[in-house]
Design goal:
Number of strands: 7
Strand content: 5-15%
CATH topology of the largest domain: Rossmann fold
CATH architecture of the largest domain: 3-Layer(aba) Sandwich
Shape: globular
Number of helices: 9
Radius of gyration: 18 Å
Distance between the termini: 9 Å
Number of domains: 2
Helix content: 55-70%
CATH class of the largest domain: Alpha Beta
CATH superfamily of the largest domain: P-loop containing nucleotide triphosphate hydrolases
Order of helices and strands: EHEHHEEHHEEHHHEH
Length: 197
């Protein structure tokens, strides 16, 4: 199975690209939503998180996100430890899921493919990019966040230049009409790459 990662900064339009690929019959793995599920359903991950962060992060089998957040998001070392537990679980889940698909290629959608080192397990990565002003506008509208909050998140992410340098393909998302044409071309290229593998 040819495995493709789709990544990009906040407001770049990763999800729009993935929706357009899904319409074309491509299976999409949403790593954010799967990670949230795995934090509750993956027995090994639950054991590791409980051991490291305390049994009280789970109440009646459900993850107490507020308790866990309080323990990791002000502590970079603790957050890195949590990520080092979650990312391998997500990758195992993705590999299982990908093996069940019947298409030429599959897509993993994730904002942190390079940061998490997931690119080593993928055949190709596509970076979705857009001008900073447009990303700001989209993210503020979507999240109801302030300009300062979005700018802070943007500073914490890889720049578009860095994403473009490290990705196999880059796609520019300015308008939905143009994006659909770009996605069609991307789909053809990825289908060709998958067959040529």
């Amino acid at each position: 199975m040819y495995k493709v990662g789709i990544t990009g900064g906040i407001g770049s339009g990763k999800s729009s690209v993935c929706k357009m690929l899904a319409v074309r019959g491509v299976p999409i793995y949403d790593s954010d939503s799967r990670a949230k599920q795995l934090m509750v359903t993956d027995a090994e991950l639950v054991r590791l998180v409980s051991q490291r962060f305390g049994a009280d992060v789970y109440v009646d089998g459900m993850l107490n996100r507020q308790v866990l957040a309080a323990r990791v998001f002000t502590d970079k070392v603790a957050l890195a430890e949590l990520n080092s537990m979650v990312h391998p679980a997500v990758m195992r889940d993705f590999e299982r899921w990908a093996a069940e698909q019947q298409t030429a290629y599959v897509v993993m959608e994730s904002a942190i493919i390079f940061e998490a080192g997931l690119d080593d397990k993928l055949d190709a990565v596509v970076a979705v990019m857009a001008p900073c002003s447009l990303r700001l506008e989209r993210a503020m509208q979507r999240d109801g966040a302030t300009r300062e909050q979005i700018e802070e998140r943007m500073r914490a992410q890889l720049s578009d230049d860095e994403l473009a340098r490290r990705a196999k393909y880059a796609i520019l998302n300015i308008s939905l009409d143009e994006l659909d044409e770009e996605v069609e071309q991307l789909h053809r290229r990825l289908s060709y790459d998958a067959r040529a593998k």
